[in-house]
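Structure catalogue
Derive tokens from sequence
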Amino acid sequence: MRIVQLANFYGPHSGGLRTAVHHLGAGYAAHGHEVVLVVPGPRDADDMMPSGVRRIALPGVTIPHSGGYRVVDPWRARALLHRLRPDRIEVSDRLTLRGLGRWATAHGVPSVMISHERLDRLLHQFLMPGSAARWLADQANRQTAACYDTVVCTTRFARAEFDRVAARNVVQVPLGVDLDTFSPCRRDARLRATLAPDATVMLVHCGRLSPEKHVERSLHALAELHRSGKSVRLVVAGDGPRRAALQRHAAGLPVTFLGFVSRRTDVAALLATADVVLAPGPHETFGLAALEALASGTPVVVSHSSALPEIVLPNCGAAVVDDARAFADAICGLLDVRESSRRAAARARAEEFPWSAAVTGMLHALGAPVDSPVDSGTR
């Protein structure tokens, strides 16, 4: 079966979405399906990835102030679909490529849309009051659900806005984590000595430095700990449009900005070496970086208003109100737990989310055969 995945907001520095489509595509290929991934790029490109997925880049327009994200013209995407003649399409974009669901219906192709964000939350943060944001999101979500055969949400939090409009074609499929790459065995004393030689506690914030991620809350939590006399350093891994402002904001604090870390093994070593990872984004619909931290044996402090309390349970982290003092107190509480216990609990929780389960769930959502995988490498 030929499965075509389509995604905008995909680029060299993109995080969770890129990771998800790569692992899902590799899993589909391992189950014997032909997989084509269509993404935006600076120019036309066509290559075969090591996973066996064919990746086609279509020229995309750069979105201003987005840190380099591009979007593909839907007309180009439809023209390519005509040539590819897919058996199934999977769209990881609820807005700019929404019309592809109608294309699929017109051509008798079953379609799935994966919802990677909460539209009502994003509208509220960037554009309008909460009631207006919910109303506009509801209108858009009704139309989106009507465009596709199936809408996939990764958590209860993510599907809540579709449940609010009584969409009947929504299924819940959690994402997964690479349990080999992200492992407690990546803990590195030399890396710790390099990044935090002056501190007894090393915190890590890993993710895109953009407004919706609320990275400043990690800085404020650090400031609270620093003022109370704690020997602590925060390491920030990631890049994005807020980086310069965050660096100015962090002046005088024990913070190290690494920028974008390209090698996944380096990210894994960083997460395993941390004492606590911070994930303060209040709009996260799953939180792959937090799950990767758990797989690395590191507990996580998360925003209670996101989906992350569904992933990060009390024995392997803490979900707190969106307040710097609450984050600081939660960090101290986790550090009071015996290290071996908190690290074992974190790893055990992550092991409940293998990519193999996500792939199987998505193949069911796509209505695609689920045969025994050849060797997906995604566990």
Q: What stands out?
A: The first helix runs from residue 16 to 30. Residues 375-379 have pLDDT under 50 and may be disordered. The longest strand covers residues 54-62. The chain is about 40% helix and 20% strand.
